Amino acid sequence: MQKRLKIAHVIFRLDFGGLENGLVNLIRGLPDDSYEHVVIALTVATEFRQRLPDHVRVVTLGKRPGKSPAYLLRLWRILAAEKPDIVHTRNLPCLEAQLAAFLARVPVRIHSEHGFDVYDPGGTNRRYRRLRRFMRLFITRYIALSGDLERYLVDQVGIRADRVVRICNGVDTGRFSPPDPAGEPLPESTVAVVGAVGRMERIKDHMTLVRAFASVADEHASKVRLVIVGDGSCRESLAAYLDERGLTDCYDFPGFCDDVPDVLRSFDLFVLPSLSEGISNTILEAMACAVPVIATRVGGNPELVRDNETGFLVPPADPEAMAGKMSVYLHDRSLRQRHGEAGRQRILDEFSLAGMIDRYRAVYEQSRNAA
């Protein structure tokens, strides 16, 4: 009987977010009798760690902001003691961890690109690109979450195409689903809810969303409400803008929520205003709940949202364009329903969680056999 494959997953911070949620889904989906996992957070782990199975160990390194290479020595010691079969790092902040994995003689070293860093939303920073090119020496396989990222790794970083595999995120279509039509019918609300889920950080550009919402609210008076689920450094400025516009009673920022499927089902439309994205879990989850989506035309978003079929695509940092598409939906309930149903069907056809897990499992097994 082949021994269990031991994987060390290295992430920057174990906290609420799409990357971290995808990691939890992957670990929970891989069979325990074939895989063993340890999660290494370079900085900290919050209460989000409770979403992992109890038998999965979490190690934190407490890396400080800025250049502090001492964490690589601690990581090397951990990997040398753990002796994993695979180290799997995710995104630019964890890329240097591949050097520690190489020196610890980990046989398979995989790196995933989920999206660009807030300080380099287009992947054009020369220093970061040089780092990516240097680290090619130590990485055996790459995973790109979108076609856009796959092209970047091959065309801009210079990685051979046969070393890159694209694996899109998947969504649990049982947990994320529309309201049960057989259940108690809900009273039809006269207030349309414009919703978003995500970290309130600059890269997510919720300021464009609140500006667009303020414009729409002026037109629709008390018939529209904004709900942004999440938290972050931009929260106060977002609230201050809405308060200054006299919209204090028209928005709600509830923070992070555990009942995201129920929250999404309460939305009439979902908006993702990001400046940069890989493959957005929240778009997939909204579509799975049959909620139409307005998203910026960046990164992997056009791979998910079919314009004027499952939602609308708008330019980034363009509140006027975003407000225009909001108004289209707010004036046409039947269009919202048609786009929502089309989005749900697309998830069922192309973005199931089971399919995503099977593709990761194939990469892990192929990499072990090739090592």
Brief overview, please?
The protein has 371 residues and is α/β, with parallel strands linked by helices. The chain has two domains: 5-170 and 352-370, Rossmann fold (3-Layer(aba) Sandwich); 192-350, 3-Layer(aba) Sandwich (Rossmann fold). 39% of the residues lie in helices and 18% in strands.
Task: Describe, in plain words, how this protein is organized in 3D.
This protein has 371 residues and is of the alpha/beta class. It folds into 2 domains: 5-170 and 352-370, 3-Layer(aba) Sandwich (Rossmann fold), CATH 3.40.50.2000; 192-350, Rossmann fold (3-Layer(aba) Sandwich), CATH 3.40.50. The chain has helices at residues 18-29, 70-82, 97-103, 126-135, 147-156, 206-220, 235-244, 260-265, 281-288, 301-304, 319-331, 333-350, 353-370, and strands spanning 5-11, 35-41, 57-60, 86-90, 108-113, 141-144, 164-166, 192-197, 224-229, 251-255, 269-272, 293-296, 311-314. The protein has a 7-stranded parallel beta sheet with strand order 3-2-1-4-5-6-7, sandwiched between helices. Helix 6 links the parallel strand 8 and strand 9 (224-229). The longest helix has 18 residues, at 333-350. The chain is globular, with a radius of gyration of 21 Å.
